[in-house]
Design goal:
Blueprint lengths: L1 H21 L6 H12 L13 H21 L3 H6 L2 H25 L5 H10 L9 H4 L6 H31 L9 H32 L11 H15 L4 H16 L3 H31 L5 H11 L1 H10 L7 H9 L5 H12 L5 H33 L12
């Protein structure tokens, strides 16, 4: 155990030394950690064992997502978001259902060994995008702020929206269409989203007020203030989950309210949590490389690879492009928004949920998700910086100067 811990610590330190340089390259941090997991795992040097349980991995991924969603929402530019609110709203209201429906249709045609409801489950699992993997684009100043805020809001909310839909399809898959009644879809969606939003707003709002009040009194120490944001983020997520609400919605809405209340102090307050979230995400990607890709790569058939490629392109891009019809968004902007829908930690959590439900083809579906996430990691990681420069040129802006004309 200690040998593995030492290797992980040394590798993380070495990455931190070159992290600034890596951000400017065509290879992302998650790619490096996944490759390290493959190299150090059972298929490589065998230094790391692939014995992480599904429960342990889900807890790590859940907490990572909660922290990333909270911090990204806190850092969001609410002024720009209000001005261009139609873009993420259309992507969520029209683009997300379109991606689920198209993903279901392609899966049902391509995979003859899964049922109709299992195809719908797969389409839902891969409709959610990853705020952590999209960070390279969301924080890139070459990308116009309206596009960054649109992607940030969409990725922060769509995984929470997908959870109740996924649960409905799982219930229907268990029923097998034989008249077994499942949960009321509308009621489930309203409960998940409503409870999540109320918990996030109340916990983060109360926490931000207390922090501001007692910081003014000089009661908050410089050491403990660094833990305030991670604690609030995890509290929002875990309380919402315990009340059968969406923890992801709670984390995102709570983070947005926290940023509004904290105002100019937001960046200083979230910075320590941002480092913690980044480290947790990289650990999750290393485990993904070791215990998921390393253990399942030999199951990737041509059908699975084809579906993964279609999921990252047509199934995602077409619904998003069509959802923005009639807006003032340019063709380049629509394509950019459609392309940057990376699949990652949220889809991995959904895969673990499906595995725990013991569906007939649950493992096969999870392998498809693992393949898609792996390809997304490469495709979106490699294309992030080049595509950011491309959209800057299309928008007629020198790199790094888009805020001047927003």
């Amino acid at each position: 155990m200690y040998e593995e811990l030492a290797i992980l610590a040394i590798f993380t330190f070495c990455y931190s030394v070159i992290s600034g340089r890596v951000e400017k390259l065509r290879i992302s941090g998650p790619i490096i950690f996944v490759l390290a997991g493959l190299l150090l795992g059972p298929l490589g040097m065998g230094w790391f064992k692939a014995d992480v349980s599904q429960v342990e991995f889900r807890v790590l991924v859940d907490l990572t997502l909660a922290l990333v969603l909270f911090i990204d929402a806190a850092n969001s530019d609410t002024t720009t978001l209000r001005k261009h609110f139609k873009v993420p709203a259309r992507m969520l209201v029209l683009g997300l259902p379109g991606a689920i429906a198209l993903g279901f249709g392609v899966a049902f045609v391509l995979f003859d060994n899964i049922s109709m409801f299992e195809a719908a489950i797969l389409g839902t699992m891969l409709a959610a995008t990853d705020a952590a993997l999209g960070k390279a684009v969301i924080t890139n100043k070459d990308v116009p702020s309206r596009l960054r805020e649109g992607l940030n809001s969409e990725s922060g909310l769509n995984d929470g929206l997908c959870v109740p839909i996924l649960l409905v399809f799982i219930a229907l898959a268990h029923g097998g269409g034989d008249g077994v009644s499942g949960p009321d879809p509308l009621k489930l969606v309203i409960e998940e989203l409503g409870i999540g939003a109320m918990v996030g707003l109340s916990v983060a709002g109360g926490g931000a007020w207390l922090l501001k009040r007692y910081a003014d009194k000089g009661w908050v120490s410089k050491i403990w203030v660094q833990l305030s944001v991670p604690a609030l983020a995890i509290a929002c997520f875990s309380i919402a989950q315990s009340l059968h609400g969406s923890g992801y919605i709670a984390a995102f809405t709570g983070g947005m309210l926290f940023g509004i209340i904290a105002k100019d102090d937001t960046h200083k307050l979230v910075m320590p949590g941002e480092g913690i979230g980044e480290a947790m995400a990289m650990l999750a990607w290393m485990i993904f490389g070791t215990a998921v890709i390393g253990q399942n790569a030999h199951y990737f058939t041509w059908e699975i690879l084809l579906y993964a490629l279609l999921s990252l392109t047509v199934i995602r891009v077409l619904p998003i492009f069509l959802s923005l019809a009639g807006t003032r968004e340019s063709i380049a902007g629509k394509l950019f928004l459609g392309w940057f829908g990376p699949r990652g930690l949220a889809s991995i959590v959904f895969a673990i949920i499906v595995l725990n439900e013991n569906l007939p083809d649950g493992r096969y579906i999870s392998i498809i998700v693992a393949c898609t996430v792996g390809l997304s990691l490469l495709a979106h990681g490699i294309s992030a910086n080049p595509m950011a420069r491309w959209i800057a040129r299309k928008e007629g802006m020198p790199p790094g100067e888009n805020e001047l004309i927003e």
